[in-house]
Amino acid sequence: MLAVPLFHSPEMCSKSWWPRCWCLTEEPRRRNKKRVPSFRKLLRTSQIKLDNKLKNKQYKQKSAAKKYRKEQKKLREAVRDAISRKPFPLEECKKKQVAGKYKEEEEDALPLDMMDEDDLKLMEDLAQKASFLTRDLSSNEPVHVKKRKHESVIEKYEKVPRRMQTEPEKELIHLLPIKDKSGIIPQAVEKPVLNVAHDEEEGTEEMEEGEDSVEEPLPVLTPEEMAAQRRQKLQERKMHIAALASAILSEPDNNIKKLKELRAMLMEQDPNVAVIVRKLVMVSLMEIFKDIVPSYKIRPLTEAEKATKVKKETQKLREFEEGLVSQYKFYLENLEQTIKDWKQRKLKKSNVISLKAYKGLAEVAVKCLCELLVALPHFNFHNNIIVLIVPLMNDPSKMISELCFEAVKKLFKQDKLGYASLGVVKVISGLVRGRNYDVRPEVLKVFLHLRIKEVELQKDSEDIAPKKKFMTYKEKRKNLSRMQRKWKKAEEKLERELLEAEASESKEKKLKLHTETLNIVFVTYFRILKKAQKSPLLPAVLEGLAKFAHLINVEFFDDLLIVLHSLIASGDLSYRESLHCILSAFHILSGQGDVLNIDPMKFYTHLYKTLFSLHAGGTNEDIGIVLQCLDVMFAKRRKQVSQQRALAFLKRLSTLALHVLPNSSVGILATNRIFMQMFPKMDLLLDNESQGSGVYLPELDEPEHCNAQNTALWELHLLQRHYHPTVQKFAAHLIAGAPTEGSGALSLDFSQRSATELFEAYCMKGMTFNPPVASVTPRRKDTFSQMDSFVDEELNKQLQQHISETVVHKSLDFAKHLKETSLS
């Protein structure tokens, strides 16, 4: 048998082969059966289980909070009840209850003389105890139960019986309670009633004393002192505004709360400086927002995003964005309210600012809104600014309406994608329809500044930009290794996919927005053509149709041409409006309308008939529209134009060039040059000999039957002696047959410019002569004597004799002279 040692050290136990349970000197350790779950096990944990745990935890927290709220509510109600009702001492209640018991049980009770003194004393002692008479007999608690220490004072008050109030309750003043052996005794005193008449007398005396003290004379300031005081106040406000603005611009994240302080100065109450301070604050806030607003739109956070924990930097950024959006919103509301108060002629109760000063404030507010409309089209509340600005385009005030027009034009010009333009067009269309087409024509003329052209719809900026060149296979084999070629192939594939995705997305977005915008524009135009043909908006509609006619759907071409011709035939249009009708019709026919079999001869006839309505006066500006019409009618449709029609227009245009301003003459002669180069037999008009039978009929309104081939361009010889040098050059060039080379050819400055460009280049709106007139130095006159001029003496004598003779004026009698001649 082996000898087992009974006692040994723990060190021996740990090193020996003996089992550890045999060690007598060390207590056995408890093994923790609950093991920590491993990472893999946590990964396998169901998401549903985790959600349930989270829901249970939240439910426990909610129930605990609900329980706490209920307890607090009960406590508040008990305190309110205890304060509102007057409790009575417990002993008095006991006595009353005992007396009532004796009265009710007087018949059944034993007479007192039949009881012993000891029994009577015991009954009186029991009557004094509250637990004997006042305890709830329906409860199962023992009579002599001890009161708990944690029993609140409010529960004691609740156990005290109440008394019905038969007499009117008097107003009490509650004092601090008194505590004795029986408990807390509340203290209260009735509120004393003072003599009302005496109080009124005292009040009047106090008012008189106050009036005497208020009516102390204030120091009278001179106008110079008042102006100096106003300048000092204004300087203090300016310094305060500058300090706040510089602090915000230096650290917007940390000083975003100062925006509220600066915005509060919009409510300046000092009447001496209120107007100027409010204007300065409006402009300062506008510049601050333009500087600190980010280049993206800030969206509100969802509940899930608010509940998640984020980094300090992210939380700081969220607080900054939230504060910025809220202050920007309040600022826009202040500007809107200022404009509304001015429009409604509404004064505030304080009357700090006069009604005249409100107009200046409203103008500054409109300027700020226009700046924000152009500068921050991507930020929040941009649509709200559009809704404010667009109705002001129709404002009676010329200054405010022009500010809004310029802002919308700038927005259209800088809007590349089309989001802002679409918003403005929607609001304008709703405004025109809502006011029953009673708006200013300039509101619709804004549509002419839209950046929607055929080129922009077909070609995007991505297509116009030079495409990225990729390496060819030979270049890769020559310059790269096998592994580098493999990586390069993968990179190029990824780049191609990214470029295609970006280009297609931007192009589709742009095309969609432009299509929607144009649909709204054309719907507005067609409504006016249908319902308000005699409206002052018709010229703007025709001008817009002339610009965007090439983008109209082919399905509307027939109906639109019929409407345009009926408008021209009605005779209600002015000359400029009829020109816009003609230009619109030919824009339609020169684009997608080529496929339609429509003869526009009636439009040619109308233009030929009305050309002589132009002159050097007010209609000289309409020459630009005529030149555009001629370009569309002849240059872009030369295959559909006959030779007779071209000859007739060439002759009439040459005659028109004689009685218009020089810039119009240059434009017309440039158009004639294009005619002579496009149509081969135009040089017939440079010859005096007639071709064919018939005589030229200049007064006939039909260009096909006026026999223009039998006349000559004699007007060019007159224009060759024109006072304007450019007109002289063009006339000499046309007389030579409009050659492209040689001595008679024009310089590149003239030949490469269109007729419309030349018309605008030589315009005399600024009262300047183009080219400028060279300064002429005055020549010195030669002095000569009278004798030097006449060498012959005999002739000189006859002259002197004739000068010295007196001239006798005889009356002229034509009848006598006729009789004498008839007799002879």
TrEMBL record:
It is found in: Nucleus, Nucleolus. Residues 237-331 form the Nucleolar complex-associated protein 3 N-terminal domain. InterPro entries: ARM-type_fold, CCAAT-binding_factor, Noc3_N, Nucleolar_cplx-assoc_3. Residues 473-516 form a coiled coil. Its main location: nucleus. One of its GO terms (cellular component) is nucleolus. Residues 578-731 form the CCAAT-binding factor domain. Keywords: Coiled coil, Nucleus. The keyword Cytoplasm does not apply. The keyword Transport does not apply. GO terms for biological process: DNA replication initiation. GO terms for molecular function: chromatin binding. Belongs to the CBF/MAK21 family. This is Nucleolar complex protein 3 homolog. It comes from Lepidothrix coronata.
